[in-house]
Design a protein that fits this description.
Structural class: mainly alpha
Distance between the termini: 14 Å
Number of helices: 3
Strand order of the largest sheet: 1-2-3
Largest sheet: 3 strands, antiparallel
């Protein structure tokens, strides 16, 4: 399994749909095609890029919440198993990036 590039990930100053880590390109959110409303597609691509760029911070927040709930021995968290499953899936990638 490959490691991922540690954060922070940010939107490129030159292209609002390109996600960067320092000088390295992480991802590009979508392309425009001639058969759709390009303004609408571009706005959606920008929104997707913003969400992607937040991934390392979102993972850290979910991991911190999981740790806090474990320390507090929180038992009644009906929606939290999904977050814990995401952590289990991503954790090997996080560990290899450190």
């Amino acid at each position: 399994m490959s490691k991922f590039t540690p954060g922070p990930w940010e939107l490129s100053r030159q292209c609002s749909t390109l996600i960067m880590s320092g000088n390295r390109s992480i991802a590009s959110a979508g392309v425009s095609t001639s058969n759709v409303d390009t303004d609408l597609v571009h706005l959606e691509n920008e929104a997707n890029a913003t969400l992607i760029s937040a991934a390392p911070d979102m993972f850290a927040a979910i991991d911190a919440a999981d740790t806090a709930f474990a320390v507090l021995n929180v038992q009644d968290m009906d929606d939290f198993p999904q977050a814990r499953a995401c952590i289990r899936e991503a954790w090997p990638l996080v560990q290899s990036a450190r």
